[in-house]
Design brief:
It is built from 4 helices and 2 strands; from the N terminus they run αααββα. The chain is mostly helical and about 100 residues long. It has a two-stranded antiparallel ribbon.
């Protein structure tokens, strides 16, 4: 097997993919992730190159998942949800305290 196919995929690329797939918009995904549309587009292109598959059909004002994109989304969405849930639990259990400061003008 080619060594390039053994390295793990970028989590940033997977997050960008999931946001675009869920919102069906590169612009909306960029806003959600606080990135530029160009950055999202580059991450998706890099992911597609890494996978050797097109994940989206891109139209002028329309984005649709391909069959490969739908297949990837079925795995990525719940996996990212589990990761985020575990991170929230660890942050809470790890004693990460919040301090609220109120001021009066």
């Amino acid at each position: 097997m080619n060594p390039i196919h053994r390295r793990p995929l970028s989590l940033d690329g997977l997050r960008a993919f999931e946001a675009v797939a869920r919102r069906l918009s590169f612009s909306a995904a960029a806003d959600e992730l606080h990135l530029t549309q160009s950055a999202i587009s580059r991450q998706i292109k890099a992911l597609e190159t890494e996978l050797g598959a097109t994940l989206f059909h891109r139209g002028t004002r329309k984005v649709e998942l391909t069959a490969a994109g739908s297949q990837l989304l079925q795995t990525v969405a719940p996996a990212l949800e589990r990761i985020d849930h575990t991170v929230r639990q660890l942050r809470t259990a790890g004693g990460r305290r919040r301090v609220n400061v109120s001021t009066f003008a």
